[in-house]
Amino acid sequence: MPRRARLALPGVPLHLIQRGNNRQACFFADEDYRFYLDWLAEHAAKTGCRIHAYVLMTNHVHLMISVDCPEAPGALMKLQGQRYVQYVNRVYRRSGTLWEGRFRSCPIQEEIYLLACQRYIELNPVRAGMVGHPGEYRWSSYRANGQGEDDVLVRPHTLYEALGIDATHRQAAYRELFRHELDPGLVDEIRRAANGNFLLADGRFAAEVAAMLGRRVLPGKSGRPRKVVAPESADLFGE
Questions:
Q1: Whether 107 contacts 9, CB under 8 Å
Q2: Residue 153: pLDDT above 90?
Q3: How many whole angstroms separate alpha carbon 74 and alpha carbon 193?
Q4: Which phi and psi (to 5°) does residue 105 adopt?
Q5: Is 221 part of a structural domain of the chain?
Q6: Cβ proximity of 106 and 15 under 8 Å
Q7: Within-domain flag for 232
Q8: What is the pLDDT at residue 50?
């Protein structure tokens, strides 16, 4: 079966996922995370990608980016992937592939889903049981977005900037979003969209994009089609 062509919409934010091959580890020591982030900042600047949120997990990576050129995400991930694989193979005396293959991605209707998707990304270590609060995890953008730590990699999206009149108010408003769990249905929706290269959007926006592109942009419903019968006539974190 041919692979689905990636959806790429100029000016529409993108959620990217890259996994280790066979879900094996791709980060082994603190230095690996640091090198990856340093190179990511370099390659993002080179390819014109603006990174709003990220998390580096043991065996996969999540990014939230905006681009002006549809080819930019592929260029970013190619540069990043090749350089990091060369580093890992040299340092750990290994050979062969590190990544699963093509990265996965989905465009996001920003007004409805962008901040929710940022929370999904930065809450990954909490859902995995690695930490109790996203601020405890070093390898994500939460400390920049929620706590104001310097991070040259993070370029805030305009919706994030609209959370408050200054950095202090924005960070407080952003932290407030994390007081409650993401709805499980929303988590599933984000996962289906990213894993299947579908659009993460409401029905109206999706219909407009589908008409423009001439292709299906939302995942189909699971199971057999329904038979149509014609009518006879908690708080997650405390302070």
A1: yes
A2: yes
A3: 18
A4: -160, 160
A5: no
A6: yes
A7: no
A8: 95
Is residue 6 a part of any domain in this protein? no
**160-192 per-position pLDDT tens digit:** 999 999 999 999 999 999 998 899 999 998 998
Residue 4 one-letter amino acid: R
The enclosing domain of 198 has a CATH number of: 3.30.70.1290
Sheet with 60-66, edge to edge strand ranges: 50-56, 60-66, 14-19, 104-107
Helices (H), 16-60: 30-47
Residue 2: strand, helix, or coil:
coil
For residue 155, the one-letter residue type is R
Place of tokens 């465009």: 107
145 inside domain: yes
How many independent structural domains does the chain possess? 1
- Which domain range does residue 56 map to? 14-213
Crossing angle between the packed helical segments 110-122 and 184-196, to the nearest 10 degrees? 100
- DSSP assignment letter at 23: G
Question: 10 Å Cβ neighbour count for 225?
Answer: 7
What's the predicted TM-score (pTM) here? 0.87
Contact criterion met (CB below 8 Å) for 88 and 78: no
Phi, psi of 150, deg, nearest 5:
-65, 135
| 11 Ramachandran zone, left/alpha/beta (phi>0; psi -120 to 50) | left
